[in-house]
Specification:
single chain, 10 helices, 225 residues, mainly alpha, globular
Protein backbone atom coordinates (compact mmCIF):
# COMPACT_ATOMS: atom_id res chain seq x y z
CA UNK A 1 0.00 0.00 0.00
CA UNK A 2 1.30 3.50 -0.82
CA UNK A 3 3.16 5.10 2.10
CA UNK A 4 5.37 8.07 3.51
CA UNK A 5 4.29 11.33 5.63
CA UNK A 6 1.10 13.31 6.16
CA UNK A 7 1.21 16.80 7.71
CA UNK A 8 -1.15 18.00 9.06
CA UNK A 9 -3.11 15.00 10.41
CA UNK A 10 -5.31 13.25 7.88
CA UNK A 11 -8.52 14.03 9.77
CA UNK A 12 -7.78 17.77 9.85
CA UNK A 13 -7.13 17.97 6.12
CA UNK A 14 -10.23 15.96 5.23
CA UNK A 15 -12.35 18.00 7.64
CA UNK A 16 -11.22 21.16 5.86
CA UNK A 17 -12.38 19.80 2.52
CA UNK A 18 -15.74 18.38 3.58
CA UNK A 19 -16.84 21.38 5.66
CA UNK A 20 -16.23 23.88 2.86
CA UNK A 21 -19.38 25.27 1.25
CA UNK A 22 -18.11 24.02 -2.10
CA UNK A 23 -18.28 20.37 -0.97
CA UNK A 24 -22.03 20.03 -1.59
CA UNK A 25 -21.74 21.78 -4.95
CA UNK A 26 -18.89 19.51 -6.00
CA UNK A 27 -20.69 16.34 -4.97
CA UNK A 28 -23.80 17.32 -6.90
CA UNK A 29 -21.75 18.27 -9.94
CA UNK A 30 -19.82 15.00 -9.88
CA UNK A 31 -22.87 12.78 -9.47
CA UNK A 32 -25.11 14.76 -11.82
CA UNK A 33 -27.61 16.04 -9.26
CA UNK A 34 -29.65 19.11 -10.32
CA UNK A 35 -27.38 19.83 -13.24
CA UNK A 36 -28.34 22.57 -15.70
CA UNK A 37 -29.53 21.49 -19.17
CA UNK A 38 -26.74 20.09 -21.28
CA UNK A 39 -24.38 19.43 -18.36
CA UNK A 40 -23.23 15.87 -17.77
CA UNK A 41 -22.09 14.10 -14.58
CA UNK A 42 -18.54 12.86 -14.30
CA UNK A 43 -18.04 9.36 -15.69
CA UNK A 44 -16.82 8.33 -12.24
CA UNK A 45 -20.36 8.75 -10.97
CA UNK A 46 -21.01 5.31 -12.50
CA UNK A 47 -18.10 3.63 -10.69
CA UNK A 48 -20.13 2.13 -7.85
CA UNK A 49 -23.41 1.81 -9.77
CA UNK A 50 -22.38 0.02 -12.95
CA UNK A 51 -24.11 -3.39 -13.18
CA UNK A 52 -25.35 -2.96 -9.62
CA UNK A 53 -21.87 -2.65 -8.12
CA UNK A 54 -18.84 -4.85 -7.65
CA UNK A 55 -19.92 -5.82 -4.13
CA UNK A 56 -23.13 -7.61 -5.07
CA UNK A 57 -23.16 -11.01 -3.29
CA UNK A 58 -22.95 -12.98 -6.51
CA UNK A 59 -19.81 -11.18 -7.74
CA UNK A 60 -18.18 -9.78 -4.58
CA UNK A 61 -15.43 -12.40 -4.50
CA UNK A 62 -14.35 -12.32 -8.13
CA UNK A 63 -13.26 -9.78 -10.72
CA UNK A 64 -15.81 -9.34 -13.51
CA UNK A 65 -15.78 -7.62 -16.88
CA UNK A 66 -18.05 -4.97 -15.37
CA UNK A 67 -15.41 -4.22 -12.73
CA UNK A 68 -12.86 -3.64 -15.48
CA UNK A 69 -15.20 -1.20 -17.21
CA UNK A 70 -16.03 0.47 -13.88
CA UNK A 71 -12.40 1.40 -13.22
CA UNK A 72 -12.28 2.95 -16.68
CA UNK A 73 -14.86 5.47 -15.48
CA UNK A 74 -12.06 6.68 -13.18
CA UNK A 75 -9.75 7.13 -16.19
CA UNK A 76 -7.56 4.06 -15.76
CA UNK A 77 -7.43 0.89 -17.82
CA UNK A 78 -6.29 -2.56 -16.75
CA UNK A 79 -3.83 -3.92 -19.35
CA UNK A 80 -5.53 -6.54 -21.52
CA UNK A 81 -3.22 -9.47 -20.60
CA UNK A 82 -3.78 -8.78 -16.89
CA UNK A 83 -7.51 -8.34 -17.43
CA UNK A 84 -7.74 -11.70 -19.19
CA UNK A 85 -5.75 -13.34 -16.42
CA UNK A 86 -8.17 -11.88 -13.87
CA UNK A 87 -11.20 -13.11 -15.79
CA UNK A 88 -9.99 -16.51 -16.95
CA UNK A 89 -6.62 -17.35 -15.44
CA UNK A 90 -4.76 -18.11 -12.23
CA UNK A 91 -4.55 -14.44 -11.23
CA UNK A 92 -8.33 -14.37 -10.99
CA UNK A 93 -8.30 -17.49 -8.84
CA UNK A 94 -5.71 -16.02 -6.47
CA UNK A 95 -7.64 -12.76 -6.18
CA UNK A 96 -10.86 -14.63 -5.56
CA UNK A 97 -9.26 -16.50 -2.68
CA UNK A 98 -8.10 -13.25 -1.12
CA UNK A 99 -11.41 -11.46 -1.71
CA UNK A 100 -13.23 -14.24 0.10
CA UNK A 101 -11.19 -13.39 3.19
CA UNK A 102 -11.86 -9.63 3.04
CA UNK A 103 -14.93 -8.60 5.08
CA UNK A 104 -18.05 -7.58 3.18
CA UNK A 105 -20.80 -5.15 4.18
CA UNK A 106 -18.62 -3.23 6.63
CA UNK A 107 -17.50 0.38 6.64
CA UNK A 108 -13.83 1.22 7.15
CA UNK A 109 -14.83 3.11 10.31
CA UNK A 110 -16.27 -0.08 11.80
CA UNK A 111 -13.43 -2.40 10.81
CA UNK A 112 -10.46 -3.22 12.99
CA UNK A 113 -7.04 -2.00 11.95
CA UNK A 114 -5.98 -5.62 11.44
CA UNK A 115 -8.32 -5.85 8.44
CA UNK A 116 -6.25 -3.16 6.69
CA UNK A 117 -2.77 -3.85 8.05
CA UNK A 118 0.26 -5.27 6.29
CA UNK A 119 -0.20 -8.99 5.73
CA UNK A 120 -4.00 -8.86 5.80
CA UNK A 121 -5.91 -10.38 2.87
CA UNK A 122 -6.77 -6.85 1.70
CA UNK A 123 -3.12 -5.77 1.75
CA UNK A 124 -2.05 -8.98 0.03
CA UNK A 125 -4.67 -8.48 -2.69
CA UNK A 126 -3.46 -4.91 -3.19
CA UNK A 127 0.15 -6.09 -3.43
CA UNK A 128 -0.77 -8.86 -5.87
CA UNK A 129 -2.49 -6.38 -8.14
CA UNK A 130 0.18 -3.70 -7.76
CA UNK A 131 2.83 -6.20 -8.84
CA UNK A 132 1.15 -6.99 -12.15
CA UNK A 133 2.79 -5.52 -15.28
CA UNK A 134 1.64 -1.95 -15.95
CA UNK A 135 -0.94 -2.00 -13.14
CA UNK A 136 0.64 -0.14 -10.22
CA UNK A 137 -0.81 1.28 -7.02
CA UNK A 138 -3.55 3.49 -8.48
CA UNK A 139 -5.27 0.78 -10.53
CA UNK A 140 -4.79 -1.75 -7.74
CA UNK A 141 -6.56 0.53 -5.29
CA UNK A 142 -9.41 1.34 -7.65
CA UNK A 143 -10.10 -2.32 -8.38
CA UNK A 144 -10.28 -3.12 -4.68
CA UNK A 145 -12.44 -0.07 -4.01
CA UNK A 146 -14.87 -1.41 -6.61
CA UNK A 147 -15.04 -4.77 -4.80
CA UNK A 148 -15.20 -3.36 -1.24
CA UNK A 149 -16.46 0.23 -1.65
CA UNK A 150 -17.32 0.71 2.03
CA UNK A 151 -14.04 -0.71 3.33
CA UNK A 152 -11.30 0.25 0.86
CA UNK A 153 -10.83 3.75 -0.58
CA UNK A 154 -10.03 5.11 -3.99
CA UNK A 155 -6.57 6.67 -3.69
CA UNK A 156 -4.98 8.27 -6.74
CA UNK A 157 -2.39 10.92 -7.53
CA UNK A 158 -4.72 13.86 -6.90
CA UNK A 159 -5.84 12.54 -3.50
CA UNK A 160 -2.24 11.68 -2.62
CA UNK A 161 -1.24 15.24 -3.54
CA UNK A 162 -4.00 16.58 -1.26
CA UNK A 163 -3.62 14.22 1.70
CA UNK A 164 -0.08 12.95 1.41
CA UNK A 165 1.50 9.51 1.81
CA UNK A 166 1.20 8.58 5.49
CA UNK A 167 3.13 5.92 7.34
CA UNK A 168 2.58 3.03 7.59
CA UNK A 169 -0.15 3.38 4.92
CA UNK A 170 -2.92 5.63 3.67
CA UNK A 171 -5.48 2.97 4.59
CA UNK A 172 -4.47 2.96 8.24
CA UNK A 173 -4.21 6.75 8.44
CA UNK A 174 -7.68 7.14 6.97
CA UNK A 175 -9.01 4.39 9.25
CA UNK A 176 -7.67 6.21 12.31
CA UNK A 177 -9.16 9.50 11.08
CA UNK A 178 -12.59 7.97 10.52
CA UNK A 179 -12.65 6.31 13.96
CA UNK A 180 -11.40 9.31 15.95
CA UNK A 181 -13.80 11.14 18.29
CA UNK A 182 -16.42 8.40 18.19
CA UNK A 183 -16.35 8.18 14.37
CA UNK A 184 -17.12 11.89 13.98
CA UNK A 185 -15.56 12.18 10.50
CA UNK A 186 -17.44 9.11 9.25
CA UNK A 187 -20.72 10.57 10.49
CA UNK A 188 -19.91 13.92 8.86
CA UNK A 189 -19.36 12.21 5.52
CA UNK A 190 -22.69 10.39 5.75
CA UNK A 191 -24.44 13.64 6.66
CA UNK A 192 -22.79 15.40 3.71
CA UNK A 193 -23.97 12.61 1.41
CA UNK A 194 -27.53 13.09 2.61
CA UNK A 195 -27.54 16.88 2.29
CA UNK A 196 -26.10 16.68 -1.23
CA UNK A 197 -28.69 14.09 -2.25
CA UNK A 198 -26.09 11.51 -3.24
CA UNK A 199 -27.47 7.94 -3.33
CA UNK A 200 -26.81 5.71 -0.33
CA UNK A 201 -25.03 3.26 -2.64
CA UNK A 202 -22.15 5.74 -2.58
CA UNK A 203 -20.01 4.97 0.46
CA UNK A 204 -18.61 7.44 2.98
CA UNK A 205 -15.18 6.67 1.51
CA UNK A 206 -16.29 7.71 -1.98
CA UNK A 207 -17.89 10.89 -0.66
CA UNK A 208 -14.54 11.71 0.88
CA UNK A 209 -12.61 10.82 -2.27
CA UNK A 210 -14.86 12.84 -4.57
CA UNK A 211 -14.87 15.96 -2.39
CA UNK A 212 -11.09 15.92 -1.96
CA UNK A 213 -10.46 15.15 -5.63
CA UNK A 214 -12.86 17.78 -6.99
CA UNK A 215 -11.54 20.58 -4.77
CA UNK A 216 -7.83 19.79 -5.07
CA UNK A 217 -8.15 19.46 -8.83
CA UNK A 218 -9.97 22.80 -9.02
CA UNK A 219 -7.16 24.41 -7.06
CA UNK A 220 -4.82 23.69 -9.94
CA UNK A 221 -3.56 20.21 -9.11
CA UNK A 222 -4.92 18.61 -12.27
CA UNK A 223 -3.20 15.25 -12.05
CA UNK A 224 -4.72 12.43 -14.14
CA UNK A 225 -7.69 10.73 -12.49
Amino acid sequence: MPSSTLPPPCAERIHGYITACQAIVDLRRYFGINLPPGALPFTGSRFEHLAGGGDLPEVADRITAEDLVAVQTLSVTVPVPVALDMLEGPLGERLSGLLQAIPKDIDMADATAAVLAEGSPAARAWQLLEDQPDVGWVIAGKLLARKRPRLLPVYDKVVRCALGRPRPSFWLALHAALRADDRALHRQLLALRQVAGVPEKVSALRVCDVVVWMRHRAEGHACPR
